[in-house]
């Protein structure tokens, strides 16, 4: 829209440029849906999330490549240059135009879905795709058209922003979280709910800083958390039928490692322990960071694969562990060993409190409530300057002399990482682990035999949060400081990428995913200015070509080459039976 209204204003005019820009982006969206998303509709929803995340990374660098990194100021809308006196306040006329446009768009959408044949088919397909397909309706093009309408409206909203706000490459991440909040508060499947929730969230953002200045940043997420706790399906949504599995996860049961796999794991650990003998200080620092991220990814992998719970706010407990170390080591002056033992308990406490409410929900509502709590914690860390230092962070959190050297800290991080992975595996194959998997696979059956599913999931949530806190504690010592970024959404998304990249259905997927993702990220940043473009392309390639993740794909290839064992035979009443 900026380009069309600035460079081609003679051809399209301002309003024509706005509409044409939205149409062009809608066409691009259709191409993305046909080339990328159609290939993964059969995959779990989390893989679709991963693909769109990779696409977002690519688009950010493409935008910088084409338009540059600087903010771009669009021209003012013709015909809306003045202001209107409204009870003594001057309201820009363009803002009044946008206020009126919102209900108009809502009305058009309502008519489109309620009074047209296309809308009837869309509503029918969302309820029963198989029946609609049996009636001869081409579902592919039906959902492509829905995607095109959604992309057009998103692009139109962005285009209409140029007279009000500067255009920059980070606009997507700034708004996407609040859009998630709007959809969840309104209720999935309700356009009217989305409209009402959008008005509510906008009013909270506009007036919250005047009425509640101390909690203005977290006000929206407090409202979302309250709505989900009281009405889990949103204000205008409808309760969903209980699913046999958590939506988006089809996890096969884990199995113990074979003797060859154990030998391979020990050999890999020994090779990693030998890194200080051949690597310099920079390599050891990167190695320590990778070991810490292995802990973080393994904790989320445990929660997702065994517990069937996909958290979008897992970084909250990683960051709480980091702040726990900062409070104990920097402010209380406790020794490093004591701080490492006690610091992660802050992550454990946060997981215990938040997990109690989160496990009452399932699916996307569970994921969004974890996101809400994570944003609440981030906002507290960002605004409580007297305790956390705000965006200035807490500095000077350095390890003691015995662990201060790069080699010493690397060995410490590697040992703690290996210990955490082993403990999580022991929990998986304990009676608790089997009960947790029973709850994941069949909540009704597990409840019928006396398993308290919510208590099992809450315990798993606490375990995962505590292990993530251990990773955050080491991270604080590695960086020598703690900032609110350790609690941010981007870090939670990184953890999801690591798990899905390695393979959520595999035993060691999180370990391999964390190593590959972090090593590739560090290497790309040092090699190219377009690291997000390359990394996003790599993520999209993995999702399309290797939907089972790196480890899952390798296991499938090995299974093809492994010779099949001949069936054993037994005789029963004179009948030969192949077992």
Structure overview:
By secondary structure, the chain is mainly alpha-helical. It has 27 helices and six strands. The protein has helices at residues 2-7, 9-35, 45-67, 93-114, 117-127, 129-134, 139-159, 171-186, 191-211, 219-230, 259-273, 275-278, 281-306, 315-331, 336-342, 345-358, 363-383, 385-388, 401-404, 406-428, 431-441, 443-448, 453-479, 489-502, 509-527, 531-545, 549-561; strands spanning 83-86, 89-92, 394-395, 481-482, 569-572, 575-578. The strands form three sheets. The protein has a two-stranded antiparallel ribbon with strand order 1-2. Strand 5 (569-572) and strand 6 (575-578) form a beta hairpin. Residues 243-251 and 568-579 have low confidence and may be disordered.
């Amino acid at each position: 829209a900026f380009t069309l209204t600035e460079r081609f204003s003679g051809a399209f005019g301002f309003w024509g440029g706005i509409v044409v820009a939205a149409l062009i982006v809608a066409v691009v969206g259709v191409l993305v849906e046909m080339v990328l998303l159609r290939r993964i509709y059969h995959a779990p929803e989390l893989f679709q999330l991963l693909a769109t995340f990779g696409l977002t990374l690519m688009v950010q660098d493409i935008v910088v490549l084409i338009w540059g990194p600087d903010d771009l100021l669009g021209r003012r809308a013709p015909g809306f240059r003045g202001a209107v006196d409204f009870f003594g306040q001057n309201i820009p006329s363009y803002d009044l135009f946008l206020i009126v446009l919102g209900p108009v768009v809502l009305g058009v959408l309502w008519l489109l879905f309620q009074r047209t044949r296309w809308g009837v088919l869309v509503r029918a397909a969302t309820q029963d795709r198989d029946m609609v397909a049996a009636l001869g309706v081409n579902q592919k093009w039906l959902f492509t058209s829905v995607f095109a309408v959604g992309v057009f409206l998103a692009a139109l909203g962005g285009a209409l922003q140029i007279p009000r706000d500067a255009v920059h490459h980070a606009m997507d991440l700034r708004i996407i979280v609040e859009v998630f909040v709007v959809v969840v508060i309104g209720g999935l499947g309700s356009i009217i709910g989305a409209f009402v929730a959008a008005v509510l969230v906008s009013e909270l953002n506009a007036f919250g800083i005047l009425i509640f200045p101390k909690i203005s940043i977290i006000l929206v997420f407090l409202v979302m958390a309250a709505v989900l706790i009281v009405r889990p399906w949103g204000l205008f949504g409808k309760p969903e039928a209980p699913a046999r599995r958590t939506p988006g996860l089809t996890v096969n049961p884990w199995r113990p490692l074979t003797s060859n796999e154990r030998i391979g794991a020990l050999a890999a650990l020994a090779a990693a322990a030998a890194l200080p003998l051949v690597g310099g200080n920079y390599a050891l620092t990167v190695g320590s960071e990778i070991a810490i991220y292995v802990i973080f990814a393994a904790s989320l992998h445990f929660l997702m694969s065994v517990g069937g719970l996909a958290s979008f706010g897992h970084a909250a407990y990683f960051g709480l562990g980091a702040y726990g170390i900062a409070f104990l080591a920097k402010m209380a002056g406790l020794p490093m060993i004591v701080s490492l033992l006690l610091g992660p308990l802050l992550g454990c406490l946060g997981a215990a409190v938040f997990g109690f409410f989160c496990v009452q929900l399932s699916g996307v509502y569970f994921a969004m409530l974890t996101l809400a709590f994570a944003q609440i914690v981030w906002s507290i860390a960002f605004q409580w300057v007297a305790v956390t230092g705000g965006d200035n962070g807490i500095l000077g959190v350095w390890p003691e002399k015995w662990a201060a050297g790069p080699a010493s800290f690397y060995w410490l991080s590697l040992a703690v990482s290996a210990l955490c992975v082993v403990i999580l595996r022991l929990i998986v194959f304990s009676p608790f682990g089997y009960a947790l998997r029973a709850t994941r696979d069949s909540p009704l059956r597990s409840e019928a035999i006396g398993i308290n599913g919510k208590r099992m999931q809450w315990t798993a949530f606490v375990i995962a949060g505590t292990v993530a806190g251990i990773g955050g504690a080491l991270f604080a010592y590695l960086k020598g400081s703690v900032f609110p970024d350790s609690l941010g959404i981007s870090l939670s998304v990184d953890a999801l990428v690591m798990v899905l990249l390695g393979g959520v259905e595999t035993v060691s997927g999180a370990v391999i995913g964390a190593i590959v993702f972090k090593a590739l990220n560090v290497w790309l940043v040092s090699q190219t200015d377009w690291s997000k473009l390359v990394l996003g392309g790599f993520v999209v390639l993995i999702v399309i070509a290797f939907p089972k993740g790196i480890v899952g794909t390798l296991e499938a290839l090995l299974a093809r080459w492994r010779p099949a064992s001949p069936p054993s035979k037994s005789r029963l009443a004179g009948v030969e039976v192949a077992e």
